[in-house]
Design a protein that fits this description.
alpha/beta; TIM Barrel; 2 domains; 21 strands; about 40% helix; about 25% strand; binds ligand C2E; binds calcium ion
């Protein structure tokens, strides 16, 4: 028998009392904790929806923006009819503007008169037509094609020829990110509507419940007349709360720790928005250079390589540049990314290239790099005292994007050339500015785009373009590299045309550093052991 507060109590009673006291004392904190937990989980669900909506808006704005710019460019060039040269121009635009599946000429009533594909046109039904942004003459239209499921977005622009417009067709899937795969364990639905309320498309897991049962985020685009709504079931969020409460104090404690560590881990893993994600990947060194060999097609020897970036995620997934370069460019992160890539390439292949001064290493730059002289400082700092040497470096600038300020660009190009590096124009023949570009910039190398290589031997027209480019390059003492060479037949043609350097899958895809270094050792041994047979450059696979 024991005494508690002066009263004799049995051990059994004491235990019950202790439990009751414990429950009373622990109850409010646990209840408060559960309440806090509930709001935390709900807030996270809401955050996730906000991020997904924002991500979709950024994607859609970027892609629609590119289509609008391409239509402006076509209109400026006077493209407004179904005549041959106009169809050619539409086709060229289609090639360079990725999300657009078709460029067409459209009658005032919305009928498609002809398209770049030249295919027989399935009937299109116009579902809605609204200005793409307040007061704009460009229209954002939702259409249905033949019997195909789902909708398409058509951007339609008037031309000077009052009776015809031109239009770009964009598949809805390319405007809405594949949400549920990125949204983690909670399934979400993303809906895109026009400002007038027409459904453009939706993507994700169907959520049939009434509005009050859902968490919802709605975000209108500031640039274009569209709105994105993302949603998830509130019960999905609530289920986790009920389970947690049932587990009682210990369960709650464990879950609290789990949730806390999850909320601590989440920003590290996923980032709050795609730009943060890029920044974190950059800090973590996840952007790695791949090297695509450039081959001398007369001798079969190596001339160098082009550095092409890959995003290697910690789980080993390799993301191609098309998925992140546009965002890196628009956010300005491309400057730091290029810098990191140059440093890493120096570390990885610098020593091997240093011993082979005839090999060149080229990097891709973007219009943003030519806006000021920062790139000149970067290149000087990175390559001045290391290998590859400045004279081995080539910087590629694409003809696909127009350069804003030609005077400043020319100054930067000249300053870079002053350091000893060479400048190449990439994707020649596909862009806006054409030959005049090269003449004005005074570049050293032109890279002929795959589109012309593909038609080698098939279309007399393209051969003429290549021949014109070769003439021009020779007159101006510029080197030529043929890109995207996939067959030996093309190699033979290029050789006949007098082209010396080529790059493409027929020789090798972009290779990780280790494979590229093996290739260099195999076909460019440092000691001149001429009697040793040269290993063929062809068919070297990534791995
Ligand atoms: P690009 O500079 O025109 O690079 C050539 C692209 O064609 C590469 O795609 C390459 O893998 C691919 N390619 C090479 N040979 C063949 C072939 O025989 N057939 C076919 N079908 N394709 C071939 P990738 O690596 O996906 O790069 C795509 C684009 O991303 C590049 O086009 C470039 O514009 C951009 N990019 C890549 N790395 C960087 C970078 O570090 N900085 C910047 N600013 N842009 C980059
Ligand atoms: Ca390139
Ligand atoms: Ca190219």
């Amino acid at each position: 028998m024991l005494l508690l507060y002066g009263v004799a109590v049995s051990p059994r009673r004491k235990l019950l009392l202790a439990i009751a006291t414990g429950v009373v004392l622990a109850g409010p904190p646990v209840a408060a904790f559960n309440l806090w937990l509930g709001s935390l989980v709900e807030r996270q669900g809401q955050d996730e929806l906000d991020v997904l909506a924002r991500r979709t808006i950024v994607l859609a704005e970027g892609r629609i923006g590119r289509a609008v710019a391409a239509l402006d460019e076509l209109a400026a060039r006077g493209v407004d009819s179904c005549r041959g040269p106009h169809i050619d121009a539409l086709r060229q635009a289609n090639f360079s503007v990725t999300p657009v599946k078709e460029f067409s000429v459209v009658a005032p009533d919305g009928r498609t008169l002809c398209a770049d594909s030249g295919n027989s046109l399935e009937p299109r039904k116009l579902i809605s037509s609204e200005p793409v942004s307040a007061g704009a003459t460009v229209l954002l239209e939702v259409i249905r094609i033949g019997e195909r499921p789902g909708h398409w977005v058509r951007i339609r622009r008037p031309t000077a020829n009052a009776s015809n417009g031109i239009a770009a067709l964009i598949p809805v899937e390319s405007l809405i990110v594949s949400m549920s795969s990125q949204a983690g364990p909670l399934s979400t639905l993303a809906r895109m509507t026009t400002r007038g309320g027409t459904l453009i498309g939706e993507f994700g897991d169907a959520i049939p419940a009434a509005a009050e049962d859902r968490l919802i985020a709605t975000l209108p685009s500031e640039r274009y007349a569209l709105t994105v709504t993302t949603s998830m079931l509130r019960t999905q969020v609530a289920v986790s709360q009920t389970d947690m409460r049932a587990l009682g104090t210990i369960g709650s404690g464990i879950l609290a720790i789990l949730i806390l560590s999850l909320s601590l881990l989440l920003p590290k893993r996923g980032g709050h928005n795609p730009i943060t994600e890029l920044e974190q990947a950059l800090k973590a060194g996840e952007f790695v250079p791949y090297y695509q060999p450039v081959v001398d097609i007369r001798s079969g020897r190596l001339r160098g390589a082009e550095v092409l970036v890959r995003w290697r995620k910690p789980d080993g997934t390799i993301i191609p540049p098309a998925s992140f370069i546009p965002l890196a460019e628009s956010s300005g992160l491309i400057i730091e990314l290029t810098r990191a890539l140059m440093r890493r390439a120096c570390r990885e292949v610098g020593p091997a290239l240093g011993r082979r001064p005839h090999l060149k290493l080229s990097f891709n730059l973007t219009a943003r790099h030519f806006a000021d002289e920062e790139i000149v400082q970067d290149v000087r700092r990175i390559f001045n005292k290391s290998s590859p040497r400045l004279a081995q470096v080539v910087l590629e600038v694409t003809e696909r994007q127009p350069l804003d300020n030609l005077t400043e660009t020319r100054r930067v190009v000249a300053a870079l050339q002053g350091l000893g590096v060479q400048i190449a124009i990439d994707d020649v023949g596909t862009g806006h500015s054409g030959l005049s570009y090269m003449l004005k910039l005074g570049v050293d190398i032109i890279k002929i785009d795959k589109i012309f290589i593909d038609s080698l031997g098939t279309e007399r027209h393209s051969n003429t373009i290549i021949e014109t480019l070769i003439d021009l390059a020779q007159n101006m003492r510029m080197d030529i590299v043929a890109e995207g060479v996939e067959t030996f037949e093309q190699v033979m043609h290029l050789r006949e045309l007098g082209i010396r350097s080529a790059q493409g899958y027929v020789f090798a895809p972009p290779l990780p550093a280790s494979a590229f270094l093996q290739l260099v050792e195999a076909i460019e041994p440092v000691k001149p052991e001429e009697e040793r047979p040269l290993a063929p450059a062809a068919q070297f696979k990534a791995g």
